[in-house]
Amino acid sequence: MKKIFPVLFILISILATACGSAAPAPLSAPTAIPTPVANVLYVDPDMELGEISPYLLGSNLGPWAAVPFNMLDAAYNSNVKAIRFPGGAWGDRNILKPYHIDPFIDFCKKIGAIPTISVNLRDGTPEQAAELVRYITIEKEYDVVYWAIGNEPTLFDKEIGADYDTAHFNTNWRKFAQAMKAVDSNIKLIGPDIHQYAVRADARPKDSKGLDWMDEFLKANGDMIDIATFHRYPFGTNPTKDDLRQNAKEWDDLVIALRGRIHELTGRDIPIALTEVNTNYNPAVGGDATPDSHFNAIWLADVVGQMAQQGVFMFNHWMLASSGGAQGGWGMIVRSGLRPSYYTYQMYSMFGSKLVYSASGVDNVSIYAAKREDGALTLMVVNLNDDAESVPLQFKGEMPSSAQLFLFDTEHQAQDMGNITFPNDGNLSVPGQSVSLYTIIPSQLLP
C-alpha cells in the first residue's frame, strides 16, 4: 500500500517568459491529508493542495552531451522546463566560457526552459565565479536566476587525492556565494548538490570526521541558501524491475527527511530540488530496468508524481541527451531516437498546474490528480505491475462519466486513445507497466 504523508507545497509564480524565472515564495503550512482506502484509488476534486512547480520537469545538459542535430526538434518538444548546466562533474573540471553559455541560453529559449548554472568550485576561484555572474546577468542580461556552486563535493577528496571535508567545503562555498552575490544580489543560490542523500541518517554522505555533509552545510550556510539540493541514484549495478518497484516507495520519505532536517537546523522553510536523478549511476543499457528501459520510464512517472505531491521545486532527470550505445543509457534523447523516459515527460506535460488530493491503497499502483487552467481534472495512474490491473476508482462527490485517455505502455507512446466511458462498477482497467492519463472536463462529471 502506498503511504501518504503530510506535505508542504511551494507557492510560486508561473513562467512570465520562455526563459523567465520565478523566485520561490514561502512554503505553506503542513497539510494533514487522509490515509488511503485499502484496495481503492481515491480522488477528492474539491481538496486543492496548492500549485505544482512549473520546474518539476527538469533535466541536465552539458557540453560533452549535446543534443544531436537530427534530434533538435524532439528536444524543443520535450516539455523540459528547467535545465541544469553544465550537469555533472564537467563543471568542476572546466571553466565555462561565452562560447558555452551563449548557445546554451539560446537553446533554453527555444525549448522553453529556465537555465540553472553551476560554477567551478573544485578547480575554480570566487573571482572566476563572480565574473561568470557578471557576464551572464550584467553584460548579456540573460535571465539566469538559479546558481549552484560545485557538483558533488562529497566526492572531492577521492578526486583530488586529499582530505576535503565539510568544513573546507562550507568555507569555500560561502566565499564563492559572497563573491557572486556581490555582483548580482538578485541571484538565487542552490546547493549543496551532494551525492546519494538517503532516508536513513546512517546512510547519508559523511566526511572523514564522520560529519553529515547536508547537516553541516545547513548549519554553516543555511542563511544564504535559497534551494536545498541533492542527487539520488539508488542503484550502481543493474537493478531488476522488482528492485525498482521497491525503490519507488522511498521518494516521499526522502523529501520528508530532508525537510525535517531543514526545519530543525535552520528554523525556516527552504524549497527542495533534486538536481540529478536516475535509477543507475552507471549508464547501462539493454536490461529490463536499466536507464534506457521502458520500466525505468514507468518508475520515473511514479517518482515525478510523488515529487509533485511533496511540493518539490525542481526535479532534474539525468539527462536530456547522451551518446547512445553501451555507455549512453541515461539520455532521453540519443542520435538513433527517443528513449522511453521521454514519453514520461510527454504525459506529465498534460497533467495540470494545481494539485488535487488523491491516494492509492493498491499495491504498486499510484494515482496523482491535478486541475488544469482550462478547468479540466486530470488523473495520472501509474501501474508498476507487469500485468494489467482492474482497480476501483472512487470520487468524493460527483463521479465522472467519461474521460479522454492518453496511454503510455509497451505498445503506446503517450498516445491519444480517444474518449472512454468509465465502467458502471467504477473499476479501471490499466495495462501492465503503464501510465494512463484521464482528462475529465466539468461536463463529464455526473450529478
Structure description:
This protein has helices at residues 72-76, 98-111, 126-139, 156-160, 166-183, 213-221, 241-247, 251-266, 294-309, 340-348, and strands at residues 41-51, 58-60, 82-85, 114-119, 146-149, 188-194, 227-232, 272-277, 314-317, 333-334, 337-338, 354-360, 365-371, 377-383, 389-395, 402-408, 415-421, 427-430, 434-440. Helix 3 (126-139) runs parallel beside helix 5 (166-183) and helix 9 (294-309) runs parallel beside helix 10. It has 447 residues and is of the alpha/beta class. The chain folds into two domains: 41-50 and 353-444, Sandwich (Immunoglobulin-like), CATH 2.60.40.1180; 58-348, TIM Barrel. Helices cover 25% and strands 24% of the residues. The longest helix is centred in the middle third of the chain and has 18 residues, at 166-183.
The top-level CATH class of the largest domain is Alpha Beta
Major β-sheet strand ordering: 17-16-19-14-13-12-1-15-18
Identify the CATH architecture of the largest domain: Alpha-Beta Barrel
- Share of helix, binned: 25-40%
**Cα radius of gyration in angstroms:** 21 Å
Number of strands: 19
How confident overall, as mean pLDDT? Answer: 90
Strand content: 15-25%
- What is the number of helices? 10
**Number of structurally distinct domains:** 2
